[in-house]
Amino acid sequence: MTGAGNNIPFYEMFHIDGGNFTNAGSISSQVKKILMRAGFSHGVIRRTSIATFEAEMNVICYANRGNISLFITSDSLKIVVEDEGVGIPDVNLAMKEGYSTASEKIHELGFGAGMGLSNIKNHTDGMILTSKIGQGTHLEFVISLEGKDKEKVAPLFAARG
Known about the structure:
Elements: E1 10-17, H1 26-38, H2 42-62, E2 63-72, E3 76-85, H3 91-94, H4 104-108, H5 116-123, E4 126-132, E5 136-144, H6 147-151, H7 154-160
Antiparallel strand pairs: 1-2, 2-3, 3-5, 4-5
């Protein structure tokens, strides 16, 4: 695994095309495979995969394009999502379970139930969401590592040499 920065033994960025439902879930699956290969616990993998999938789907449903970045640090997994799109007019309202601005098309595809952002919040240890109308949205969330999961990071630092 490759590193980026002094305190980040692993970093990878993934591109998302807005509206591309054909590949929906592929990035969260790639993140899951990375974490499985690294030997993280089922709980950490599950929480990260759920939150990453929800973020990925939000970009696909609401933005023109975006990027998801995975950072593995000595004590956490951090996901950063940046998109170019319409933006979120009211972030507080968007955080309420069941609130959705999804189009009829998105609902017909089985998405847009208004649970994505609250699922991210519920499955992570910290979340920051900012948005600018007409520009896009920036989301960061963190999964804290403890015990055996924290030990999995040490070989990543050693591999950087």
